[in-house]
Amino acid sequence: MISDGVEDEEKYLAAGIAGLQQNAFYMHRALDSNNLRDALKYSAQMLSELRTSKLSPHKYYELYMRAFDELRKLEMFFKEEARRGCSIIDLYELVQHAGNILPRLYLLCTVGSVYIKSKEAPAKDVLKDLVEMSRGIQNPVRGLFLRSYLSQVSRDKLPDIGSEYEGDADTVRDAVEFVLQNFTEMNKLWVRMQHQGPAREKEKREKERSELRDLVGKNLHVLSQIEGVDLDLYKETVLPRVLEQVVNCKDELAQFYLMDCIIQVFPDEYHLQTLDILLGACPQLQPSVDIKTVLSQLMERLSNYAASSIEVLPEFLQVEAFSKLSNAIGKVIEAHVDMPVIGVVTLYSSLLKFTLHVHPDRLDYADQVLGSFVKKLSGKGKIEDSRATKQVVALLSAPLEKYNDIVTALKLTNYPRVMEFLDTGTNKVMATVIIQSIMKNTTHILTAEKVEALFELIKGLIEDLDGTLHDEVDEDDFKEEQNSVARLIQMFHNEDPEEMFKIIGTVRKHIMSGGPKRLPFTVPPLVFNSLKLVRQLQGGHEDKENPFGEEASTTPKKIFQLLSQTIEALLNVPAPELALRLYLQCAEAANDCDLEPVAYEFFTQAYILYEEEISDSKAQVTAIHLIIGTLQRMHVFGVENRDTLTHKATGYSAKLLKKPDQCRAVYACSHLFWVDDQENMKDGERVLICLKRALRIANAAQQMANATRGSTGSATLFVEILNKYLYFFEKGNPQITVASVQSLIELITTEMQSDSTPAESATNAFFASTMRYIQFQKQKGGAVGEKYEQIKV
User: What is the purpose of this protein (predicted)?
Assistant: First the structure.
C-alpha cells in the first residue's frame, strides 16, 4: 500500500511538472513577443499546478522550486515593461483578474516586488496589501509556500533604516509588522498541518512538518537582519510578539523549534537584556517540549558571550543573569511536574557551567546551583537513569575542570550531597575522576579538615557503600581503584608536624573502615607517609638535646604506636608478608631515631609473624633475607638485644626447608657479625662459624643431590661461599686466612673436575669470573694486592 502511494505521488509530480513546463513554454513565447496578456494567461495556468493537494510537502517543494525559477523570469519581464513605460499600477490591477486565487496571489507578489522597486507607492502599503491578501490561502502546505515566496521576494525591499525604500519615521516598525504578520500566519498554517488527514498518519505528518520548519524560521532570521531593530524595538515589540505566538500555538514541535530559532538568530546582548521576557515564556510551554535543551543552548550562548570579552561581564552583573536563570529553571521544573531526572540534571549542569564561565570568582553561586539541584531531587533516592548519572558526573566534574584544584571544589558544601544521588558504580567513577584531577594537577592536600572532606567524596572507593560483596567486583578494576587511592594518600602533606599527624589520623580512620580486602593497598602508603613525618621530625631536631621530649605533642613514639596498630590490621586480611615488610621498615626508621625499645618491638612483631603466619617456603626465604638485610643496618641495639635478634635470625636460616636456601641464608647471616663502619660489630670468629656452617650445608646439599639424582650436583653454592670468603678476606677479617680461601678454591676445582655430569655453564662462568677478580686484585697492587698475592689460582 505504501509503495503504491509513493508511485502515485511520483505520477502526480511528473504530471504537475509536465503541465508546468508546457505552460512555461507558452509563457516564454509570449514574453519573447511582448504579449503581456498571453504571458499572464499562461503564467496563471502554470501556477495552477501548485493548487494540487496530492503531493507530500517534500514533492510539493520540487514543483514549487520549478515554478519559482519561472517566476523570476516573469519578474524580469515585468521590470522591463516598467522601464518601457508600462504602468505598474495597471499591471498590479491586471494580474488580479486571474481566475484562481493561488495563481493570482503568486502573480500579485511578483508584480508587487516590481511595484515596490519602482517606488510609485510606499513599500509599507504594498507589503501590507500583499500580506493581508495572502490570507486567502488557508491550505497549510499551499499557504506556507505562498508566504515563503512573499518573504523571499520582499526581503531585500523592506523599508529598513539605510534602505532605499526607507520612508517616514515609523518605517522600521512597518517592516517589522510585515514580517511579524507573515510569521504569525505561517506558524498558524504550519501548526494546522498536524490536523490534516487521518489520525493513523500523524507520525508521518509530524515528519513532514519537521521538514517544513525552516520556511517558518526564515522569518525570524529576516527579523534579525533588519538594521532598525535595536534593543528597545526588540524588547518592546519583536520578542513579545514572537513569544506570544510561540506560547499560544500550544504545539510541541513549533514551540521547541521557534524557541531554538529565537536563541540562535538574535544577538547575545539582546538575550542578556531581555532575559526576563524570554525566560518568562519557558514555564508556559507544553510539558512535552524539550525545555532542557532550549535553556541549555541559551546558557551556552551567554557563556560564550561572556568569554568573548571581559568588558561584557558587568552587563551580566547588572541584569542579575545568574539569579534570573536560576529562578527560571526552578519555575520550569515546578511547571513540568513530570520532568524526568535527566532534564533536571541537564538544566542544573548547564547553569553550573554558565556560572563557572561568567562568575568564576563566586563560589557561593556554584554552591547555590548544587544546593538547588539537591533540593529538587530530595526524596527521590539514587538516580537510576544511566544518561542522568552521566550528566551528574559532568555536573560534578565542571568545578574540577574549571579550577584545576580539588581544594576549591571542597569548599562547595553541597558537592558531597550531590554525590549521594549516584549509584555505587557511578560514585566510584566520580571518585576516580576526583583523584585523577588531584594527580594531574599535583594538588597537595594540606589540612586534616580538607582530607576529611575529600574522603567523604571518594568514600565509594574506600568502603562498600551498599554492602556489595567484593566477589561481585571485577578484580582488575578493584586493584586499579585501590591503587589510585594509594597514590592519593601520597599527595597529603603539611610541613607542620602537628597538622600532618592529624592528617595521618584522619586517613587511618577512613582506610580502617574499608574492610580487609582494601588494606594491602592503602596501609603501605599511609605507613610510608607516616615514616616521612618521622624523618621530618628527626631532621628538624638534630641539634636539640631532647628532640622527642614530652613537650612535643607529635613525637616519633606516638607515630610508631599508631603505625604498630595500623600494620596489625593487615593480619586480618591476612597479609603477613606485607605486614612483616612494613614492621621492618618501621624498625629501620626507629633505628634512625635512636629508639631502641621501639625498634626491638617492631623486630619482635616481625619475628612473631615469621614464626606463626608465614608457612610458604618461598615466602620464608624472602622474609629471612629481608630480616637479615634490615638487622645488618641496625646500629641502635645494645649487645644483648642484638645477640637475641641475631641468634633468632641464624636459627631461622638453618631451619629453611631446602638445603640451598638454608645455605644462602646462613652465609648471609655472616654479615650480621661484621659491619664495616662499626668497630664494635666486627666478630671475625662468628663470621667464620657462619661460613663454615654454610659449607657444611652446601656439602649436605650435594650429597642429597647425589643420592636422589646420581650426580654430585652443582658447585654453585661453593662458588657463592667463596665470594663471601673473599669479601671478608678483603675487609680484613683475621679469621679468613689465605689457607682457608686456597683450600676452598681447590675444593671447588676438584668438585667441578670430578663431576660426572657436564658442569653448568652458569657455574663455570661464575667461578671463572671469581678467579679473574682475584687475578685483577693481584695486579692492582697496594695493600689489597699484597693480600691476594699469596692466593694461588
Answer: Plays a role in vesicular protein sorting.
